[in-house]
């Protein structure tokens, strides 16, 4: 049953000639003709407000870049990548005149009382009553509730303030990395400047610089309508090399060596200890590849070197249509909200097709299959099925059909799928028009129907790995709201919304699985509720 509800078994044709599941597609109500769009057909826009998914701390991009996009208060487990929780404990204060190490108690805060002998031996100190307890100091540590890993396992000391008590690890090579980054920025800016000089040979050099003393003499300051915005971008890119020597006789390699110290070669390596060859390795003390790559700055090789991983700041993403640049997906600006201001998913417009039954396949013979169709649109949708014989459609995106699907019904048959109404629950029952289809439509309930079709595999060989694949057309008639132009100022707004009947044909590619059902795969018979629906309709 898990294979039947897998969305990757039924795919739709995108506008870029790719096959995607319906849950991965979008639609734009402004584009004509209507087409489906995948993530490669839309423009991705990242929100400039970043937030932590755990503590909801939000910052702007400049603040997040200064902390390397890491939250200082939230951590993930370096072993299982789950969230680490903060646990509090108490330490016993040392006795009078005794410098003892701090003893950490895992239980509730310990209460220590001063003995009468200790108080009487020192007359300078005021005598305290035995009932006056002395509370220990509270400390905090991190623990994973899944794998039970704690910061105490690797020797990380407890902190007295949480959150924010655990500092970020400092990379010992951070100075070298910054030095290389600055050097490559200078080289990239110089290459861009030389490229611009070749592209604009007649442009005067003085027009590339802004006079800091007199803004009126600068051409860029006199720009009123932003015509010179591209020039300003080039100036920002070349600002880092304004004071560098741009002598053409000095090559880029010479300039790079003058800015960055060359790396030192390693002549010898430390020999491995004898225990590495004599004793078997302890797997529990060695980190895995995923654990090392989770912390790329240090890549710990031993389990004792693991350190809590800071959670990264996240940002919400908006998506625009690449054709008309209208939004197709826009989330709420509030970081706590998971809702969308605009959510044009194809799943809410196009009927969803799923596999309901899988028979025992017979080669070159008709096999009866039942498909379910669900309507999630806000109004009724009229659908009809089209048999595809065009080779150009069959060979799209490398999809090679190995079977032929047929809907044995008349060509002018159209089926109306009701909209989803959560206010009332309808029983599974066919309408009078459904009974006239001669068993083609075998189930109806709320916004879901089921139809029968025949699939004929025509595989040349009978290998187990060969899958039964077919293509058909789903013709939909949907009442979509008419997109009108903005109203002219002074005109009376119209409260009535006009709807236009749009007829769209979607190409559906279905993969029924392997021809021979082996390795635990079984035949999925007709569900019992379909037979009950047919009996209830006939008795009526």
Automatic annotation (TrEMBL):
A single Gene Ontology CC annotation of this entry is: centrosome
What domain of life does the UniProt record list for this protein's source? Answer: Eukaryota
Which segments carry the region annotation Disordered?
112-133
* Compositionally biased region (Low complexity): 118-133
Q: Where in the cell is it found?
A: Cytoplasm, Cell cortex; Cytoplasm, Cytoskeleton, Microtubule organizing center, Centrosome; Cytoplasm, Cytoskeleton, Stress fiber; Cytoplasm, Myofibril
Q: Which UniProt keywords apply?
A: Acetylation, Coiled coil, Cytoplasm, Cytoskeleton, Isopeptide bond, Phosphoprotein, Ubl conjugation
> What's the subunit arrangement here?
Subunit of dynactin, a multiprotein complex part of a tripartite complex with dynein and a adapter, such as BICDL1, BICD2 or HOOK3. The dynactin complex is built around ACTR1A/ACTB filament and consists of an actin-related filament composed of a shoulder domain, a pointed end and a barbed end. Its length is defined by its flexible shoulder domain. The soulder is composed of 2 DCTN1 subunits, 4 DCTN2 and 2 DCTN3. The 4 DCNT2 (via N-terminus) bind the ACTR1A filament and act as molecular rulers to determine the length. The pointed end is important for binding dynein-dynactin cargo adapters.
Recorded family membership: Belongs to the dynactin subunit 4 family.
Recorded protein name is: Dynactin subunit 4
């Amino acid at each position: 049953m898990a294979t039947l509800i897998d969305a990757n078994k039924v795919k739709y044709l995108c506008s870029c000639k790719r096959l995607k599941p319906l849950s991965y597609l979008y639609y734009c109500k402004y584009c004509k003709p209507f087409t489906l769009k995948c993530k490669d057909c839309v423009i991705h826009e990242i929100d400039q407000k970043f937030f932590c998914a755990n503590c909801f701390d939000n910052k702007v991009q400049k603040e997040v870049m200064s902390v390397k996009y890491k939250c200082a208060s939230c951590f993930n487990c370096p072993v299982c990548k789950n969230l680490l929780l903060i646990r509090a404990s108490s330490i016993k204060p040392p006795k009078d005149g005794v410098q003892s190490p701090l003893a950490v108690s895992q239980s509730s805060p310990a209460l220590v009382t001063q003995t009468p002998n200790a108080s009487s031996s020192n007359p300078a100190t005021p005598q305290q009553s035995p009932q006056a307890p002395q509370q220990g100091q509270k400390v905090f540590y991190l623990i994973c509730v899944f794998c039970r890993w704690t910061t105490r396992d690797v020797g990380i000391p407890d902190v007295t303030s949480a959150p924010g008590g655990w500092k970020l690890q400092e990379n010992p090579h951070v100075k070298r990395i910054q030095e290389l980054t600055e050097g490559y920025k200078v080289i990239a800016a110089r290459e861009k400047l030389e490229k611009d000089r070749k592209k604009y040979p007649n442009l005067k050099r003085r027009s590339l610089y802004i006079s800091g003393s007199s803004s009126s003499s600068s051409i860029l300051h006199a720009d009123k309508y932003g015509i010179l915005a591209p020039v300003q971008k080039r100036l920002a890119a070349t600002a880092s090399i304004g004071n560098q020597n741009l002598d053409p006789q000095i090559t880029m390699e010479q300039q790079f060596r003058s800015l960055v110290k060359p790396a030192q070669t390693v002549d010898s390596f430390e020999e491995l200890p004898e225990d590495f060859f004599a004793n078997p390795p302890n797997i529990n003390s060695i980190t895995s590849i995923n654990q090392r790559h989770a912390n790329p700055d240090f890549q710990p090789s031993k389990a004792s070197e693991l350190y809590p991983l800071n959670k990264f700041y996240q940002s919400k993403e908006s998506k625009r249509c690449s054709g008309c640049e209208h939004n197709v997906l826009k989330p709420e600006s509030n970081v706590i909200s998971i809702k969308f201001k605009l959510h044009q998913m194809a799943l809410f417009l196009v009927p969803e097709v799923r596999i309901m039954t899988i028979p025992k396949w017979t080669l070159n013979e008709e096999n009866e299959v039942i498909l379910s169709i669900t309507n999630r649109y806000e109004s009724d949708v009229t659908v009809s099925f089209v048999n595809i014989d065009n080779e150009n459609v069959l060979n799209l995106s490398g999809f090679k059909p190995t079977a032929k699907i047929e809907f044995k019904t008349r060509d002018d048959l159209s089926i109306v799928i009701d909209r989803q109404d959560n206010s009332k629950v309808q029983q599974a029952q066919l309408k009078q028009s459904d009974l006239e289809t001669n068993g083609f439509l075998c189930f109806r309930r709320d916004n879901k129907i089921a139809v029968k079709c025949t699939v004929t595999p025509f595989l040349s060989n009978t290998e187990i790995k060969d899958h039964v694949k077919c293509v058909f057309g789903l013709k939909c008639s949907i009442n979509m709201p008419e997109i009108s132009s903005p109203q002219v100022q002074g005109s009376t707004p119209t409260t009535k919304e006009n709807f236009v009947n749009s007829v769209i044909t979607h190409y559906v590619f279905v993969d029924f699985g392997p021809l021979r059902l082996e390795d635990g795969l079984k035949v999925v018979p007709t569900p019992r509720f379909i037979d009950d629906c047919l009996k209830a309709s006939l008795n009526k």
